[in-house]
UniProtKB/TrEMBL annotation:
PANTHER family: AMINO ACID TRANSPORTER, AMINO ACID TRANSPORTER TRANSMEMBRANE DOMAIN-CONTAINING PROTEIN. Residues 43-430 form the Amino acid transporter transmembrane domain. Keywords: Membrane, Transmembrane, Transmembrane helix. Pfam families: Aa_trans. This is Amino acid transporter transmembrane domain-containing protein. It comes from Perkinsus chesapeaki. It is found in: Membrane. GO terms for molecular function: L-amino acid transmembrane transporter activity. It is a multi-pass membrane protein. The chain crosses the membrane at residues 48-67, 73-95, 125-146, 158-175, 182-206, 226-247, 259-282, 305-327, 353-373, 379-398, 419-441. InterPro entries: AA_transpt_TM. GO terms for cellular component: vacuolar membrane.
Amino acid sequence: MTIAEESSSNVELKRVHHAPAGESFEEAGKVIVDQEGHHGKCSDIRGVFSIVLSAIGMGVVMLPTVFASCGWLGGAFVLTLGVLFAGFAVSKLYLGIALTPTEKGHVYTYEDLGRACYGKWGRALTALIVHVTMSGICASLLVLLGENTTKLIPSISQRIWIIIWAVFFIPFTFLRTMHEVSYVAAIGMVSILTLFAVVSANGLMVGITSTEPIVYDIFVPDFIEIATNFGVCILSFNVTNSVATLVRDMAKPTHFVAVSRWAYGIIFTVYFGIGVCGYFGYGRSLRDHPIMDSIVPPNQPVSGAWAYVTLIAIVMSSVPHYVVLLLPIASSLEYVLNIDVDDNSRRAGIKRFLARLACIIFTTIIAVSVPNISSLLDILGSFTMVFMVAMMPCIYYMRIQQMLLGSFMTYIKSHKVEFVFICAVLTWCVPMIVVGSYGAIKNFG
C-alpha cells in the first residue's frame, strides 16, 4: 500500500483513519477524513525540517567518537544499521497511528498509541519510557548550551548559563504546534549545515596538515563497543517522540513516510560526513576526547576562527533542537491536563504556559543536578532509546494489525516478509540493549 497516494494529495486533514477491522490491508488504504480531529497546517518541507531538527543535536558531537570506537568499517556499519532500523521503525510507527481503529480514539501522542494497543498500562509504560528519555535528552542540550556559552563567556559559570538558557526558552512556549515550531526548525537548518561544513572541513584540514601520525582502526572487534555505539546511533537518529505530534500538525499527514525518508537522507549525510571527517582528522584519540574538545580544548581560552565558529554553530543548532524536542513532551502533558490544542481561550493559554514552563523547569533540574550527563546518555541510548526507537513502533504496529485483521496469525500469513524483517529487528535489539547497557553502566562516572 502506498501511503502518499495522488488521490489523497489534496486532502486537508490532520488525523488519518482507515477502513474498519476485518478488511484486507489493501482495502484499508482508503483514507477517511476525520472531521472532528485537529487540522494541521505544517507543510511537507517544514515537516522535513522538523524531523531533521528532532534528530540532529548530540549526534554531531558523538558520531566521530563512534568511528573512533568501532573503526572505519565498524563505525559505518553501526551508523548505517542505526538509520535503517530507525527509518523502518518510524514508518511502522506512522502506520500504527494511521491504522488505529476510530473507536480507539485520536492518536496525538506516542502514549495515545500505547493506550490504543494495550490500554492504560500501555499508555503509562509508553509515557514513562518516552518522557524520561526525552527529558534527559533535553537536559543534555541545556548542558551542551551551558558548556559552549561558558567557553565563549567564561566569566559566568556553566550552571548559571544553563539557567539563563532555560529562561531564554520560556517565550518559545507560545509556539503551540509543529507548524509554528517549523519556522524555528527552518532557521536551525542553516546552523546545522554550517556546523556540518565547519566540523567536516576542520577534520579534513587537520588530517591533511598533521605532522604527527594519526592512528586509525579498520574494524574494532569488540561486541560491547559495537552494542554501546549502536545505542548511540539509535539515539542520534531518534525522532519517534515527535512523530505523533508532527502527524497531528501536518497539512497532509499521508505524506509522512516520504517526508521522513527525505529527512533521514539529510540526517544520515550530515552524520556520516561529520563522523568520517572527524575521525580522519583526529583518529583513535577521539575515544578519550570528543571532537569538540579537540577543536576547542577544555580549560583553555577560546582562540582561533575554527573554535569560535564551531561554538556559535553548536549553540545556534542546539536552540531549535531543544524547542522541537520539548514540544511533544509539552503536548503530552497538555493532553493529560485536558488542554485542547485548538482552544484559544485565556484560561487555556495560561494553563498551556504553566504546563510548558513546568517541562522547562524539569529539564533544567536534571541538567544542573546530574554530574555526568554524557554517561547518562550512554545508558539512555543503550536501553530506553533502543526500545523506544526500534522496538516499540514494531510491537505497536503488529498489535494494530492484529486488531484490524482479527488475529495475529492472520497478520503473519498476509505479511510474511514484513514479519520476518520485524522479528530480525527485534532479535537484534535485545542483545544490543543487554550488552550495550552493561557497557554503559560499567563506564558510568
